[in-house]
What we know:
Blueprint: E1 3-5, E2 8-11, H1 13-21, E3 28-31, H2 35-40, H3 54-57, E4 67-70, H4 75-86, E5 92-95
Amino acid sequence: xxxxxxxxxxxxxxxxxxxxxxxxxxxxxxxxxxxxxxxxxxxxxxxxxxxxxxxxxxxxxxxxxxxxxxxxxxxxxxxxxxxxxxxxxxxxxxxxxxxxxxxxxxxxxxxxxxxxxxxxxxxxx
Length: 125
């Protein structure tokens, strides 16, 4: 069950898997690690926008959407979630376990690395 830390909802592995498996759930899940970390192993189907690139795109994100951020252990994704909250986004969550606690399928390679913002590439297929 999610808990609130520092004003940000934190979800666990099973909650994130439920979001990903629910076809009617339109929550956007974004990996915020570095490209080499993402290439080595990531949650299948989710895009990468490195944490340091987020400020360049913050004005392009839809404030009405819901977001979950993922990183290695939950620290960077928490900072990104806090940054979104600071910029007026209400529906943001941190995946608290990070990839270290991810216990479901993992993909390798540069599947969906965002180098130029395109909202369509954030959607799960």
